[in-house]
Amino acid sequence: MLTNRMMAGVYLGQFCINSLTYFFLTWFPVYLVQERGMTILKAGLIASLPAICGFLGGVLGGVFSDMLLRRGNSLSVARKTPIVVGMLLSMSMIICNYVEADWMVVAFMALAFFGKGVGALGWAVVSDTSPKQIAGLAGGLFNTIGNISSITTPIVIGYIIAATGSFKMALVFVGANALIAAISYLFIVGDIKRINLKGISDPLEDKPLQADSPAAPHTPR
C-alpha cells in the first residue's frame, strides 16, 4: 500500500488533515487564552463553536460529494472537489494573524474547522480504492498514519511557540498542512479507482453464500 502512489497520496492527505483536527483539540483553547487574552471560561465556550461548524461541514461534505457522483461526475471529481475546497477554506485560519477583533478570530477559526469537516472524506476514498483482498490492512494503515499526526502536531506546535513566543508561525504551520493535503489529492493521488491485486483471490467472492436451513415444522401433540 505504501508503494502505491495513489494510496501514498491518500495517506499523506489524511496525516495533514488530522493535523488540523488535533490543533483544535489541543492548542486552540490555549491560543484563545494566551494569544487573545480570553478567560478560561470564555475560551471553553468559544472553542466549541468551530467544533460545531466542523460537524456541519462533515455532513455537508459527504452530501456534496454524493451529489456530484449522482450527477454523473467521475469518482475523482466527486471526492477530490470537497477535499480540495475544504482544505483551502481551512487555510483561512492564517488570516487570524492579521485581525484584532475576537469575533473575526472566532469566525475564521470556525470557517477553518468547517472546511476541515468538508474535506474529511478520507474514509470514503479508502473504501473506494482499497483492494478487496486487503481492505482491512489498507484501512488500518490509513488510520495509523492519520493518528501519527495526533502525536507529532501538538509537539511541533509546542516547539514553534517556544521558539517564536507566539502562535503566528504555529497557525502558518497548521495552514500549510491543509495546503499539503490539497496538493496531495490534486497531484499525487491521481485518478481515484479501486486497486486490483493480481494473484490474490477475493475471499468474499470465493466463499459461496449459504442460506439458512428452514426450521423443522412444529408437530402439535
TrEMBL record:
Molecular-function GO term, any one: transmembrane transporter activity
Membrane topology of the entry: Multi-pass membrane protein
GO CC terms in record: plasma membrane
Protein name in UniProt: D-galactonate transporter
Family under the similarity heading: Belongs to the major facilitator superfamily. Phthalate permease family.
Principal place of residence: membrane
Compartments, record wording: Cell membrane
One Pfam family of this chain: MFS_1
Domain Major facilitator superfamily (MFS) profile: 1-193
Keyword Ligase: no
Organism whose genome encodes this protein: Pseudomonas cichorii
Transmembrane parts of this sequence: 12-33, 45-69, 81-100, 106-126, 138-161, 167-188
Keywords on record: Cell membrane, Membrane, Transmembrane, Transmembrane helix, Transport
